[in-house]
Amino acid sequence: MKTYKIAAIPGDGIGGEVVSAGVEVLAAIAKRDGKFAFAVDHFDWGGEYYKRNGRMMPENGRDLIRKHDAILFGSAGHPDIPDHITLWGLRLAICQPFDQYANVRPTRILPGIKSPLRDVGPDRLDWVIVRENSEGEYAGVGGRAHQGSPLEVATDVAMFTRAGVARIMRYAFKLARSRPRKKLTVVTKSNAQRHAMVMWDEIAAEIAKEFPDVAWDKMLVDAMTMRMVIKPETVDTVVATNLHADILSDLAAALAGSLGIAPTANLNPEREFPSMFEPIHGSAFDIMGKGIANPIGTFWSNVMLLEHIGEGAAAARLMKAIECVTANPRFHTPDLGGKARTVEVTAAVIDAIGAENA
Ligand code: NAD
Ligand code: MN
Questions:
Q1: Strands, E assignment, 160-313
Q2: Which ligand does the CA of 244 lie closest to?
Q3: Residue whose CA is closest, atom 33 of ligand 1?
Q4: Where are the alpha helices (DSSP H) in 270-338?
Q5: Ligand in nearest proximity to the CA of 83
Q6: What is the pLDDT of residue 121?
Q7: Distance of CA 14 to the CA centre of its chain
Q8: pLDDT-based confidence at 120, cuts 50/70/90?
């Protein structure tokens, strides 16, 4: 029997609540399948670790997880610690050195879930947003000088490399080609940002020639927000920069019913390093410790994890179990307007996995 090694990093806030639910569900899906198992190692990195050790993860942290088959991540963000320290000290400290350059974010309206959009059904909203995850606006390049004086200056420089843009475009075109509609929208801002975004557009047009069977268009990011709301059915696969896609994917999650549902994969497509799977939401300070965090975003991230490690049948089974549970309003957490608790949703998904005959 094949055993996959998973590194579980719950982080802070509701991260712990949803990751422990996610680990239970992984065990259930492996048991139901019978042909593979998971060995899960837990890492207590994050804000509490920072308070004890002055850093978010140990210096050799990445070496401890480098050989794992996948990482299941919760959230980086602690009420007592500035966000740029928690984010750069943990999440980005894994994503960037492990070269997880493709951040993939599917969005659908699951059965039983209400979208804030009027008259939009599951058939009209089925998107995947591909976020460039290694450079761009989050390259970390910049600095501050003359702090506190009237002369103070600060810069954040967006860095775009030809290699970085080409590989994310190629990834997005390939993904678009694998989907039924074979459609890609390249999001840009080349009217105002006249250097890097113009190169971004040029590289998109070059890579597009390798994919004559993919229909593609180009859209300014501001106009894209409107299109996602007004004409959701015209969107399928989307590729955008680190910052643009960060914003568009929160919008996408809200349009699909709740931030608590949306999943992410941080992929190293060449598989030189482990890839990392996480719900897109953060630590949710307002609900942490209350037992009402929606675990569906983590479960859907598990579906992406299963697909990545090559367990496609188990991935499909888990997705069906999730949809069977969201279809029943009794299992909706408060973010979806219901009263269910995290443990009830988790138990329902585990039951549905057992009942699933496929
Ligand atoms: P957030 O995602 O934590 O919360 C936004 C809102 O959505 C809150 O009202 C919250 O209660 C709700 N929500 C989020 N997830 C939910 C779930 N699973 N079930 C029910 N409701 C849910 O975003 P924020 O408030 O901007 O950030 C809080 C902290 O999390 C900050 O420190 C931020 O830096 C961090 N953060 C981390 C990540 C990450 O690690 N990937 C992502 C986003 C935010
Ligand atoms: Mn975000």
A1: 183-188, 215-220, 237-240, 263-267, 275-279
A2: 2
A3: 77
A4: 296-309, 312-326
A5: 1
A6: 67
A7: 16
A8: confident
Give yes or no for a contact between 10 and 16, defined as CB atoms under 8 angstroms apart: yes
Centre of ligand 1 to C-alpha 249, Å, is 13
pTM for the whole thing?
Answer: 0.95
Q: What is the pLDDT of residue 124?
A: 76
Q: Do domains 1-101+261-358 and 115-256 have the same CATH topology?
A: yes
Q: Is 103 helix (H, G, I), strand (E, B) or coil?
A: strand
Q: Which CATH number fits domain 1-101+261-358: 3.40.47.10, 3.40.50.2300, 3.40.50.1820, 3.40.718.10?
A: 3.40.718.10
Ligand nearest to the CA of 91: 1
Any idea of the CA torsion for 312, 316, 319, 325, to the nearest 10 degrees? -140
**What is the CATH code for 115-256?**
3.40.718.10
- Angle (CA) 303-309-311 rounded to 5° is 65
Residue 281 Cβ < 6 Å to ligand 1 = yes
Binning pLDDT at 50, 70 and 90, where does residue 119 land?
A: confident
Q: Tell me, what amino acid is at 55?
A: R
Cβ of residue 259 lying under 6 Å from some atom of ligand 1: yes
Residue 99, Ramachandran bin (φ over 0: left; ψ between -120 and 50: alpha; else beta): left
Helices 15-33/296-309 angle, 10° precision: 50
Q: Is the C-beta atom of 286 inside 6 A of ligand 1? A: yes
Provide, rounded to the nearest whole percent, the portion of the chain with pLDDT above 70: 98
The answer to whether 14 and 287 have CB atoms below 8 angstroms apart is yes
Instruction: Count Cβ atoms below 10 Å from residue 60 Cβ, excluding itself.
Output: 8
Rounded Cα distance between 100 and 135, Å, is 11
Separation of 284 CA from ligand 1 center, angstroms? 4
- The encoded tokens of residue 142 equal 């910049």
Of 9, 92, 259, 276, the residue with max ligand 1 atoms within 8 A of its CB, to mutate for a pocket test, comes to 259
Confirm if 106 and 235 have CB atoms less than 8 A apart: no
d(CA 247, CA 340): 29
